[in-house]
Task: structure prediction
Amino acid sequence: MADAAFWAICLVVAPLFFAISSFVRGGLAHVFGPLAAWLNALAVLGLTVSFARSGPLRYAIGGWQLPLGINFRIDGLCVLMLAMTAVTGLAVSMYALGYFSLRIGSARQMSRHEQQRLFFWPLWLLLWAGLNGLYLSSDLFNIYVTLEITGLAAVSLTALSGKPAARLAALRYLLVSLLGSCSYLLGVALLYRCYGILDMAALSRLVSPGPLLWCGLALLTAGLLLKTALFPLHFWLPPAHANALAPVSAILSGLVVKASFYLLLRLWGEVFAQVLPPAAYVLLGALGCGAVLWGAAQALLQKRLKMLIAYSTVAQLGYLFIALPLIRLDPGPAARQAVVLLILSHACAKSAMFMAAGSIFLKAGHDRIADLAGIKEVLPVSSFAFVLAGVSLMGFPPSGGFVGKWLLLGVSLAGGQWWWGMMLVTGSLLAAGYVYRVASRLLVFKAPFFSRRQAIPPVMEWSAVLLAVLAMLLGLLAGSPLELLAAGNQVFSPAGLEVLR
Amino acid sequence: MMDAMGIFDMVLALALPWLGWRLLASPDLFRAMVLFISLGLLMALTWVRLQAPDVALAEAAIGAGLTGALFLSALRRLERLSEAERRLAFAGKREEEDEIPPERHRRAKPVAYGLALLLLAVFVLLLAWSLAQTPAGGGLGPAVGEQLGQSGVRSEVTAVLLNFRGYDTLLEVMVLFLAALGVWSLTRVRLPLQDEEPGPVLATLVRLLAPLMIMVAGYLVWIGGSRAGGAFQGGAVLAAAGVLLLLANVTVVRQIPAALLRWGLALGPLLFLLTAVVCVAAGGNLLEYPPQRAGAWILLIESASAVSIGVTLAALYAGGRPPEPPAQDRGGEQGPGRDADADAGGRQ
Amino acid sequence: MNTLLFYDFSGLALLAIGLHGLIRSSHPLRKILAANLMTSGVFLIMISGARGTGQTMIDPVPHAMVLTGIVVSVSTTAVALVLVCLVQETTNRALLWQKRKREKWGRTDG
Result:
């Protein structure tokens, strides 16, 4: 009887259960954590298979139908986001398993390391449950609660490293996230007051232009933009992502910012697509351009590897926003497919990059780019992973990034708005610049490289490589995920809702 | 026509922002926090006026009481810190003792500030105008009324919280659990919370009050099925009892083993989650209670949640994970009075 | 004038004051107070909307949402307050360390 709904329930319940268990039985945390990661991967596999067989689905929690209850809505986009979280999360979990089994430094450092391990797993599993819940839910207020889980867990994970800089960054992150949630909540309240319903699909059928709708939508968007760290609101992101522990950085940059962007994509691409004026999309696209330029310029100037990667996240998020006006422009599925591909490949590539950078940091004892020359002699696999992920970020041919950008370029030229396409190309060149800056150091031959005695477990290196390879091959494998995406689309059309009710 | 209640409403509606303004403008942080607590109580009064007694109870207990206590204890910790610093004769170096150095306040340029203020004002006015313009939509009130009979409880708010939108509440309990987890991951608690010994009056008072409060908490959970009350309100009262015990530095509280505390935190979330799964195993949807037993299930979930909410909120007040057992505390550099958070490290 | 709108506007005013305070205040505790004011403002707007939907019928869904919101808000506040204390502590320790170094090695600025 294992249908899609069953797997969807597993995706929320299992991480929550293991989070609680690994908190209560701290000694077994490093068993429960990876176990939950594998179970989650299994559940996503099951969900994908049954989704491919039986198509989109609505699931009424508690048996309460709309408008009263909360519904899961399982469609193509949702399945793809869940799959992204599962794959990246699994790789990060394996990496973390290696990371927290390290023996480092003095006894005091070791005891701190032990504490971090004890709390990393439950926090990360709760974060994971929040993400899964967010992707599954179709209820705006329920999404608020999942956003809060995600945000609070992300903040706690950021502060886990215990460095003063990380704590300060976490505090700023928390305040920003508070502001964002507050704005989002008010937006939900205003929409509820207008239409008396919280379900996104039902809302998309009811919306009509009006002052309260504009205000509500502006508030929802502003809150989510803060959490996604779009260009002028990105100030909190680089310090938070750069100062966290290595597995945490990978989670924050690869997965957490995607959640709020996914929601924006839902709202702007589906729910309110009929009522929003094109100018609003252009505004977001313009901010995206700003993010691409500013993020890349800052990345080029950074002296530290992790700061560079964090600014690269700011730039890469810009692409996703450039895609929004193109989705509006394009009646076909190309732009939507492209943005999903960009999300997936960025998640893999960026996590791989942070994981590789974490290994490099451990081995070298620092992450000053200038002094990393020749580290490939001692860490060949991680250096390879970093460069491969970087190439994928640049948008080199077989990568998912390449296919995504290529599709967007096609849409922008066909629609006569070539400036978006130009921005994409410029961004890729800038990305090539900062990736080259690091790669030229990493791959140069300079023996002997002075490194610490720290042995890096193979699982840490290979999980990064696998993710980087996946990001690279995503362009070749893109066919089947995009079919899934198309399969889910009719759920959001008004007719689909009628059928499902 | 403006009757007495209308005037009362108007005064209340004016008093709230005024108090908020005074609170943020007050240069003295302690005063600001006292004003914050009174604002919370005024909010509770407002909820009563708006016929939301459940919210009023929660606001008075959690919004004003517990949040206020959290603020005050944080302030005391900060003040203790800056005092220690003063004692270290670092005076001439720092002008504003309240400020965290890395976040030096930048004076905004007056033009940019004015512009931002204008923008804010325009948006708020726009919002006010659109609120006044738009007729209220349907709302879910009628739908809740229709289905109330099948929810197993008589209170509408409890029906929404634990049945119709029980999934929200499940996740919300997780948020609370997560907060405790986050606080525990950050630092270790320093007991006793007060430097000075509690007076005999306080100790006696606490011994008398604590059992009474536990009974009140139980009553609130029980009554939640039909009237205002429920797990959150009951849990908050329980937490208040916990806070009093912590303040009075009762020996029992310090001797609670860490494992028991962990179970206390986890009990509510775990039971809620298991209930949800049992519903699936029994052939229903997630959180779909069997209709005849719904009331009993809800009461079970609420009782377990109330215990965990109480423990969690008290743990949040304590502000850190329990201290490690003394057996591991070899190496005398970590005496009880010393900074117990040495593990957090100032290593750059 | 409708008395419900009083509370709407009151909530909006709280929201605006809180936002202003959040951006303007320098002390982190005051920032957190301001954020709490903002959420209170949002709650006020939500609840006053719940009564506005009908003359006699109260909509319990916003009440439940606000209850959830209050709990979420106390959770985030608690984490934020502990973080503030820790940040202050580590800063103090860093200053102390600097001072010791300065006493040991004589005055060196920078």
